[in-house]
Amino acid sequence: MQQYLFEFIGTLVLVLLGDGVCAATSLNHSKAKGAGWVVIALGWGLAVMMGVLVAGPVSGAHLNPAVSLGLAVAGTFPWASVPGYIVAQMLGGFVGAVLVWIFYKDHYKATSDQPDTMLGTFCTMPAIANTWRNFLCEVIATCLLVFVILALATNGNAFSVGGAAASTGSLGSWPVTCLIMSIGMSLGGTTGYALNPARDLSPRCAHAVLPIAGKRDSGWSYSWIPVAGPMAGAALAGLLYLLVF
Predict the structure, then answer these.
(1) pLDDT interval class at 157 (50, 70, 90)
(2) Tally of domains in the chain
C-alpha cells in the first residue's frame, strides 16, 4: 500500500506541474502565456523529474500505466503489482488535474471563449486528425520511452562502484528527464506526446466533470488513442528489450 500511495503522490506531482505548464503558457492573462513549445517540453521533463524524486525511493516511480506494463512484459516488475499501480496512477493524475484547475481558475474564466485551449491544458488532441497515424505516433513514442528506460538499467548504464551495482539515487531521475524533453521536442508535434494514460485520460475525466465555464466536449472520440497507443507501445518495448538484451 505504501508503494501505491507513492505512485499516487508522484503522479499527482507530475500532472500538477505538467498540466500546470500547459495552463501557464496557454491561458489568458497568465504571465507565461505564449512561452511556447520549448517551455512546455522542459516543463514536462522537469515535472517527471519531480515526480520521480518523490516516488522513486519507495515505488520505483513508474507514474505511468504504460511504464508499469512495459516493465512487467520485460520481466523486471511483478505482474501482481500492475493493477494496483495503475489505479494509483490514474487517481493521482485526476487529482493533479483538479489542482491545476483550482490554481488557474481565474485564468480559465478569462479563457472561457477558447474551449479548445482550455481542453489542451488537461489532455492531448492531435495537430492533424488521422486516427491510425495518431495511434502509430503514440505507439512509437511510448515504445521509445519504455525501451530507453529499460536500457538505462542495463549493466553498461547502471552506476557501479568497484564492479558492484550501486543505486544512483536522485541522479537516476536526470536521464529520464532528458528523455522526456527529447521526446517532446522531437516527437511531440503530432499528438502532443501523451505517452501516459494517467497523464491524459485522468485529466480528461477531470475536464469532463469540473464546472468549467465555456468548455467544449472532452474529446472522447479521440481519447482511446492516448491510452491504447502508449499501452501497445510499452508492451512492444518490453518485448524488444527481451529480444535485444
Answers:
(1) low
(2) 1
Chain-centre distance for alpha carbon 213: 26
Which residues is 164 bridged to in the sheet?
161
Q: Which domain holds residue 147?
A: 2-244
Classify 160 as helix, strand or coil.
strand
Q: Angle 65-73/82-103 helices, nearest 10 degrees?
A: 160
- Say which amino acid occupies 37: W
If residue 164 lies in a helix (H) or strand (E), which one and from where to where? strand 164-165
Looking at the DSSP bridge assignments, the partners of residue 160 are: 165
Indicate which CATH number applies to the domain containing 147.
1.20.1080.10
Q: Are 123 and 49 in contact (CB under 8 A)?
A: no
Selection from 98, 109, 123, 111 nearest residue 16 by Cα: 98
From the number of C-beta atoms within 10 Å of its C-beta (0-12, 13-18, 19+), residue 68 rates as buried
Cα 58 to Cα 225: distance, rounded to the nearest angstrom: 31
Q: Are 93 and 205 in contact (CB under 8 A)?
A: no
All three cell numbers of 243: 529480444
C-alpha cell at 220: 472522447
- Which pLDDT does position 163 carry in this prediction? 58
Instruction: Please state whether the predicted TM-score (pTM) of the whole model is above 0.85.
Output: yes
* Interval 100-145: pLDDT, tens: 999 999 999 999 999 999 999 999 999 999 999 999 999 999 999 9
**3-class SS shares of the chain: helix, strand, coil, % to 5:** 70, 0, 30
* Helix 65-73 and helix 131-152, axial crossing angle in degrees, nearest 10: 60
